[in-house]
Design goal:
The chain is α/β, with parallel strands linked by helices. It has helices at residues 2-10, 19-24, 41-50, 56-72, 109-122, 134-142, 171-180, 236-246, 263-277, 304-311, 313-325, 342-351, 383-390, 419-427, 445-453, and strands spanning 13-17, 36-40, 81-82, 88-92, 126-130, 146-148, 164-169, 183-184, 195-200, 207-213, 217-220, 227-228, 231-232, 252-257, 283-287, 355-357, 371-375, 398-403, 433-438. It folds into three domains: 2-148, Rossmann fold; 153-220, Archaeosine Trna-guanine Transglycosylase, Chain: A, domain 4, CATH 2.30.130; 234-453, Rossmann fold (3-Layer(aba) Sandwich). The longest helix has 17 residues, at 56-72.
């Protein structure tokens, strides 16, 4: 009986986790079925450095530490403790000659973690090193250790839901759609709020742009979304985006697209139209992750608004454009002085709190009701951070997440593991959610070429 138990133990995999996996997902230690999860002592020491941080990394570090402390009461962590969801958790001490030297600099924490995986491998265990750090995975592979990224909460970006499709049909069906203002087309397996471009099989210029509703029902797009804040769409994808942004029944909109496709501009135009003219929302709340491109500028003087102004400049640029191009033509809007400059109009919106800029750091714990919330650059957020933000939505709030999965500044995220693409894939079947992928850059011909060629 003992021999059989040992044999069963030998076939288990040993997953050695890097610190960044725990900081990315605090529940990661419970994600490896009935195998053995190994945390080197260097990982515990690195968690200790993050536990006092007031960001998502600090919260994850504290959650992992609390869970480890709970497991400590059930047995000896050095020998291994059974976890409730199955599997065994073990803390491995690298000191005291327990580790086989793989020939790396042991003054580097990552190398000490790799030494644990290498030692277990030399003991005949089936070892897999799990890390979000590509360089660490490369070193592990060079040592003959199996490697993997942490793939829970990852999606297949190449097959990401685009929010639209094209269907070739008989011309009579398109004529029927225009006559009856609806069309039941079975067998498409449509997602709620998915767009369908019907194309005449005999004349490709004879088309109808429709939206899925109530399963197999296709309906026309609403006329009020043709022009928003005096901004007209320049592509069918932008027209689809306006359709989702202007529909109060759709409480969450996700927009994915490369630089220059108009994601932020469209969202702000819809927010101004719905808040100032239609009075559907009390204010507009705009936020974006504070992650620098290139070297960080370091400490910045001033209060919170002054500090945020540096990070929110892309928002100011779009607002200034919209106020110059749109607000001056809206004579019925009593809140805006037509004689003011675009910058003065933007300042008025900020000082009157019609538009508020907020750091994502301060969103946790809030309940946001009757607001049009825009989270820009959401591709730099983890799935858990996106969950935290969306769960803040109160009664009557609309949320818009925008981003370009090809431009990620977070070193531990990629196009398949970031919170934006994860939300798109997980929520695509919900009636309150709508998504569109913007494909054509409309900023300028040079910006379009840069996005495609550089």
């Amino acid at each position: 009986m003992v021999a059989r138990s040992n044999q069963e133990h030998k076939v288990k995999k040993y997953f050695v986790l890097d610190t960044n996996v725990l900081l990315h997902n605090a529940d990661s230690i419970n994600s490896f079925s009935d195998n053995v999860v190994v945390l080197p002592m260097s990982v515990i020491e690195e968690l200790d450095k993050f536990k006092s941080h007031n960001d998502e990394l600090g919260r994850n570090a504290r959650q992992v530490i609390r869970e480890l402390d709970s497991l400590r009461t059930k047995g000896n962590l050095a020998k291994g403790v059974d976890m409730e969801g199955g599997g065994v958790l073990r803390i491995f001490t690298e000191g005291g000659g327990k580790c086989v030297d793989p020939g790396l600099n042991m003054h580097v924490a990552d190398n000490r973690i790799l030494a644990v995986a290498y030692t277990l491998l030399q003991q005949g265990e089936k070892v897999i090193f799990v890390s979000k750090d590509i360089n660490a995975r490369l070193k592990a592979d060079a040592l003959g250790i199996g490697v993997m990224d942490f793939e829970k909460q990852k999606v297949n970006f190449d097959e990401l839901f685009t929010g639209q499709r094209q269907v070739t049909v008989a011309g009579e069906l398109i004529d029927k759609f225009y006559q009856e203002k609806s069309l039941v087309y079975p067998g498409l397996d449509l997602m709620p709020n998915e767009f369908v471009l019907l194309i005449d099989e005999g004349n490709e210029k004879h088309t109808a742009l429709t939206r899925a509703r109530d399963g197999e029902m296709l309906v026309p797009l609403q006329e009020q979304a043709d022009a928003v804040w005096n901004i007209r769409s320049r592509s069918k994808e932008q027209r689809m985006a306006f359709e989702l942004l202007m529909d109060p029944a759709i409480e969450l909109v996700t927009m994915v697209g490369q630089a220059g496709t108009g994601k932020t501009l469209l969202a702000l135009a819809a927010a101004l139209e719905c808040t100032i003219n239609f009075k559907r929302y009390d204010r507009i709340l705009v936020s974006r992750p504070i992650i620098p491109l290139g070297k960080d500028l370091g400490y910045m003087p001033g209060d919170k608004d002054e500090k945020l102004a540096h990070w929110m400049q892309p928002i100011f640029d779009n607002l200034t454009f919209l106020m110059a191009d749109g607000a001056k033509k809206k004579e019925h809007d009593k809140d805006l002085d037509k004689d003011e400059s675009a910058k003065q109009k933007v300042d008025h919106l900020l000082h009157s709190h019609v538009v508020e800029l907020e750091a994502l750091t301060y969103i946790r714990g809030r309940s946001i009701a009757r607001q049009f919330v825009i989270v820009d650059e959401a591709q730099n957020l983890t799935p858990h951070e996106v969950k935290t933000i969306v769960s803040r939505a109160g009664e009557g709030t609309k949320m818009v997440l925008t981003g370009d999965p090809y431009q990620i500044d977070n070193p531990y995220l990629d196009s398949s593991s970031n919170g934006l693409t994860y939300a798109v894939e997980r929520l695509k079947g919900q009636a309150f959610h709508g998504h569109i992928t913007l494909v054509k850059s409309e900023r300028s011909s040079m910006a379009a070429a840069a996005a495609d060629l550089l």
